[in-house]
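Class, carefully examine what follows:
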Amino acid sequence: MSNLEVLKNSDFILCFGQFLSNTKQDLVEAINNAKKENNAEVVYMHAVDSLLLKDFYTQFIKYEAGSEEGISALLLDTLVNSSSETIQNYIEDLDIGYISAESSAGEEEFEEIIEKSKNKKSKVLFVGSDIFSHERVENIKKILSAIDKYSEFEVISENDFIVNDENIEEVEEILPFNGTVIYSYLDNQKDENIVYASVSFSRIAKANDGDKIKLKYKNKEVIKQLKIEETLQSTIAICATKNIGDDFLSCGYIYKPVKIERLED
């Protein structure tokens, strides 16, 4: 069965690490079908929120950029009750308080997942492409594989993630992404020359709607235009790309802390 069919037939969906506003319409349609036909609950987990998605999910868990490994571990702790001795020992050794605090995802939010999913029959965790750009992706794959094997949730993704290795490493220190951060994602509909930002982001960046800006990251730079997007509810701005590797924003990890220089016309 295809991933879309799995989603259509489910009644509880966790969507983790996939920005769904104005992109992945087939995925959105499959989830909306599950909501309509199966009264599916949808928990949307991402670092960027948009008002366009308010009617899409029944619960939103916002986490910090860079904390996907920690979020995966919190999901493992939440969703797995009975497993191998190796996995159970790993779960018992997790510092849930630290991970929750540093990822800005409350423990009570994960408890709500369990409460909402109690009487559901077909539970799915969809893992988006964001996760596979993380530098700790190999460890994240081990965590996701354990969730798929030992929980009631079927884990699906467009990327291969199943590994037969239960020797999961300790969650690496979760470092903050301070300042102005850009999230780059694949989208053929949006203009890749524009950085879409909330009012709060533009204030931090000291740039106004329509301004030409230079983004600097390490020894690389690129020129874009800033556009205020009223529906964005985040201090992280977004920038579409049509192809991975078009510029430094779309290479490597999808969140980049950048310095912004406002350019005069």
In short: The mean pLDDT is 93. Residues 177 and 257 are 6 Å apart (CA to CA). The longest strand covers residues 220-228. The chain has eight helices and eleven strands.
